[in-house]
Task: inverse folding
DNA sequence: ATGGCTTATTGTATAAGA
């Protein structure tokens, strides 16, 4: 079973890239973030044509998450239980007996901003909710744009980023707390090239110079750890004309 | 160098992303 996550930075703009990527990679499940469109604009028909069922939770301009699947999608839920949030950042469903949770975690803007405070609250609520979800669904995968680079090796220039979002100690502590729930960073279960990143700034020729961060992740629960076969980041869509600033992150699970 | 790009908005500049 091939699972993937990709922040597309506007599905309206990126749909051709997504369709090409689905055709070339044939994932069983692809989670999307930053669709930036209302449900009424979501391209259900084009995705169905490509062989994918889809569920979406979107809004105009900002945020928006979706799960695409070649298989039946059941038990869909939107958002975090008992947490009022106007921002569409979470969508979940069960596919092939695995609980898929697709998240677009808050960016936070800067560590001294209200948005950062919201990020901290949001991560706290996510943690509490996931503790319950893991009891309900031992086989769980948490995929998405976390907006957290967990370690210095996930940042192209740790010294330059001290004091910035994505790498602050409080954000990293939240990431570690997720791992303490019994989740595993699937990318790090396998040997990876140094300076492996999933996002590169559009500016300053960030991609060509590999000035990136690894902030998109696929965490798997204890019950799925031994099923992980391989994990990688597919940089190829980042090289296309008018790309998303994020690349797809991929995990292969065996069938057991 | 507080910028550097890209996207969306009922725009002609601003906000947000990371």
Result:
């Amino acid at each position: 079973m091939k699972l993937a996550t990709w922040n597309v930075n506007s599905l309206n703009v990126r749909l051709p890239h997504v369709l090409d990527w689905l055709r070339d990679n044939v994932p069983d499940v692809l989670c999307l973030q930053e669709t930036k469109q209302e449900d009424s604009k979501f391209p259900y028909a084009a995705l169905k044509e490509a062989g994918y069922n889809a569920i979406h939770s979107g809004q105009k301009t900002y945020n928006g998450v979706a799960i695409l699947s070649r298989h039946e999608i059941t038990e869909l839920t939107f958002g975090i239980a008992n947490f009022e949030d106007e921002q569409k950042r979470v969508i979940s469903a069960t596919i092939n007996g695995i609980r898929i949770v697709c998240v677009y975690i808050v960016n936070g803007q800067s560590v001294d901003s209200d948005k950062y405070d919201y990020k901290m609250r949001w991560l706290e609520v996510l943690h509490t909710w996931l503790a319950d979800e893991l009891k309900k669904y031992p086989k769980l995968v948490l995929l998405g744009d976390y907006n957290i680079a967990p370690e210095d090796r996930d940042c192209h220039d740790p010294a330059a980023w001290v004091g910035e979002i994505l790498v602050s100690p409080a954000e990293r502590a939240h990431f570690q707390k997720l791992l303490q729930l019994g989740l595993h960073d699937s990318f790090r279960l396998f040997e990876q090239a140094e300076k492996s990143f999933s996002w590169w700034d559009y500016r300053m020729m960030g991609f060509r110079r590999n000035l990136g961060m690894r902030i998109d992740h696929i965490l798997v629960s204890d019950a799925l750890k031994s099923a992980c076969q391989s994990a990688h980041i597919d940089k190829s869509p980042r090289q296309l004309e008018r790309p998303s600033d994020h690349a797809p992150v991929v995990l292969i699970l065996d069938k057991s």
